[in-house]
């Protein structure tokens, strides 16, 4: 997948979610994907510059449709999951504003998403381990 294709997919999902008013988004949130997801987040080959390092994003918790992750006690991810398994979140680098983190969760419990920042891109691949 090229950077352009990845960026286009992220922009498309963001546009779909942004087009919904807040009240509608609240009705779209699903508890069906609640649980703990673990894995690793290395730089995406072919999409990242050589200086990019893995993100410390190896565990995400979803409770009542709210997607959250923490890095050393600091909240690093905040978002929500829809009934279709799509999620819209922000990833927070230390001391900075959030960047878009979007993707989907399939019926097998695989959470896949993407984060881009500067010359780096990460494809997040986590697996559900427990239900909340």
List keywords for this structure.
132 residues; alpha+beta; Lipocalin; 8-stranded antiparallel barrel; globular
How does this structure look, described?
The longest helix is centred in the N-terminal third of the chain and has 16 residues, at 3-18. This protein has a single domain, classed as Lipocalin, CATH 2.40.128. Strands 1-2-3-4-5-6-7-8 form an 8-stranded antiparallel beta barrel. It has 2 helices and 8 strands. The N and C termini lie far apart (33 Å). Strand 2 and strand 3 form a beta hairpin. The chain is globular, with a radius of gyration of 14 Å. With 132 residues, it is an alpha+beta fold. The chain has helices spanning 3-18, 22-28; strands at 35-40, 59-63, 66-71, 74-81, 86-92, 98-105, 110-117, 120-130.
Average pLDDT over all residues: 86
Tell me the CATH topology: Lipocalin
Instruction: Give the % helix.
Output: 10-25%
What structural class results from the helix and strand content? alpha+beta
Number of discrete domains:
1
Ends distance: 33 Å
**Alpha-carbon Rg, integer:** 14 Å
Quaternary organization: single chain
Tally the beta strands. 8
Major sheet, described briefly?
8 strands, antiparallel, barrel
The DSSP helix count reads 2
Poorly predicted tracts of residues:
15-21
Strand content: 35-45%
Which CATH top level class fits?
Mainly Beta
Strand order of the largest sheet: 1-2-3-4-5-6-7-8
Query: Do you know the CATH architecture?
Result: Beta Barrel
Order of helices and strands: HHEEEEEEEE
Overall spatial form: globular
């Amino acid at each position: 997948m090229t950077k352009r294709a990845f960026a286009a997919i992220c922009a498309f999902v963001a546009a779909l979610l942004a087009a919904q008013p807040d009240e509608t988004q609240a009705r779209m949130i699903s508890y069906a994907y609640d649980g703990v997801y673990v894995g690793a987040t290395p730089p995406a080959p072919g999409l990242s510059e050589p200086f990019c390092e893995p993100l410390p994003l190896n565990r995400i918790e979803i409770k009542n449709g709210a997607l959250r992750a923490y890095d050393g006690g600091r909240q690093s991810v905040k978002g929500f999951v829809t009934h279709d398994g799509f999620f819209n979140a922000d990833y927070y680098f230390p001391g900075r504003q959030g960047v878009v983190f979007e993707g989907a969760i399939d019926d097998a419990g695989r959470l896949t998403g993407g984060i881009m920042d500067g010359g780096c891109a990460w494809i997040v691949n986590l697996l559900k381990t427990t239900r909340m």
